[in-house]
Design brief:
The chain is an alpha/beta fold and 165 residues long. The protein has 5 helices and 6 strands. A 6-stranded parallel beta sheet has the order 1-2-6-5-3-4, with helices on both faces.
């Protein structure tokens, strides 16, 4: 099972999914498609969920492509700095495999990974099985291209600087 959502959709459905997950023994994988030119929309969607998950005793794992999370941003966002772990410099190929392994352990309430390409059904199934096994949530963060942008190849993911240093 996987769900898809755009960052500008209502966060209430996602918050209900977190509450449901806390009362059941299943994991959840959600793909968050976001516009790189609207970083606040993604923050508005995810922060309440991450804050709620931060109340669990388990860790939060962020698998980021290049940038390091800003300690100041994490603290200002109300996320538990003492329960947040980040692995940066992840290559797109290793992000998926790392997510599967981390979700399966049960050590993390949430695993967030950035990918640049759409995942296959097989990839979603592997992630969903791992999330269920570890009773965890996984967020696949993937930027969408707006039609107003010229069609060209991008050299990599952009993660906005107010989140990172």
């Amino acid at each position: 099972m996987y769900t898809s959502g755009y960052a500008n959709r209502n966060a209430m459905a996602s918050a209900a999914a977190v509450r449901q997950q806390q009362h059941s023994s299943t994991g959840l994988i959600s793909e968050v498609l976001y516009r790189e030119d609207q970083p606040m929309m993604t923050q508005l969607l995810l922060l309440p969920l991450l804050q709620q998950l931060g109340q669990q005793e388990r860790w939060q794992l962020w698998l980021t492509p290049q940038q390091k999370l800003s300690r100041q941003w994490v603290q200002a966002s109300g996320l538990p700095l003492s329960k947040l772990m980040q692995v940066s410099q992840m290559s797109p190929g290793s992000t998926l495999e790392s997510m599967v392994r981390a979700l399966r352990t049960g050590n993390y309430s949430v695993v967030i990974g950035w990918v640049s390409e759409e995942l296959t059904e097989e990839d979603h199934l592997r992630l969903a099985n791992a999330a269920e096994e570890g009773n965890a949530m996984g967020f696949i963060m993937r930027p969408v291209r707006t039609t107003s942008q010229p069609s060209r190849q991008f050299s990599g993911l952009k993660i906005h600087s107010d989140l990172y240093h």
